[in-house]
Amino acid sequence: MGDGRSQKGKSMLLSAIQIGLLAYAGLAALIYFKQDALVFQAAMERGYEATPARIGLRFDALTLATEDGEALDAWHVPTRAGASARGLVLVFHGNAGNIGHRLDYLRMFHDLGYASLILDYRGYGRSSGKPSEDGTYLDAAAAWRHATQALGYPAGKIVLFGESMGGAVAAQLATVQKPAALVLASTFTSVPALGAGIYPWLPVRLLARIGYDTRERLATIAAPVLVIHSRGDDIIPFAHGEQLFAAAKPPKKFLEIEGGHNDGFVFNREAWVRGLDDFLRSALEPKAAQTPAATVQ
User: Fold this and answer.
1) What angle is formed at CA 121 by the lines to CA 217 and CA 185, rounded to 5 degrees?
2) pLDDT for 145 beyond 80
3) pTM
4) Which DSSP state fits 93?
5) What is the radius of gyration, based on Cα positions, of the chain?
6) How far apart (Å, rounded) are the C-alpha atoms in residues 136 and 36?
7) Which end of the chain has fewer CB atoms within 10 angstroms, the N or the C?
């Protein structure tokens, strides 16, 4: 009887191990094949909650054409009537929502004297297509073309502002163009690094098909860089912001804010807006004094 019980116990143990391995393999397969849906949460919000008109901003509704034939919804918000713009901010939003959820950014830049151009990536909002990493890079290129050709802004007057995933998109654009400045707000070092932190028991770096390697690209970006991050960010750890700042070339600044990933925004506090404004002023006005590396509290 003892041998029978022992054999049964071993069989149950083997079954449990097999079930565990199958579950592990299933989760790994889910991460590999479904990572587009995990990263690009485009289908969640196809319509707009509001347009800039709701907060009293004049705007031009645009359709930007990409090199591969997609049509992107975009808004251009000019400065006040009769006022000359200090520059143009290209706004690249995060992986969820759409341009209708970023009105506070447009208001902030407008109040600071900047025009802005914000777009929905392919598959987001009312833009055509299906989102992908390479696709978002083509979308960013379309925004740059419109800014420089249709709107007539020189590269030295264009700021790239990226929020979360949008920071990775902005960083890639900064490697092929020469903007006046790059702002990375609550941005990750890379998707594999972020995923490895969320799923430490999975070989995420081997499974990742989406890279968005922001940290690696910073080594080749000559533009002044501002990193904005919160210690309370519950989705992208503060360490990502620290590592991005360390990787960036001077001149660079770090602006520490407060709050979670979805409620810690630079426009939430006057001191943070002032820190952003000081950085942009030094980047766009060559005669202004520039500090190679500093921390703004």
Assistant:
1) 50
2) yes
3) 0.86
4) -
5) 22
6) 13
7) N
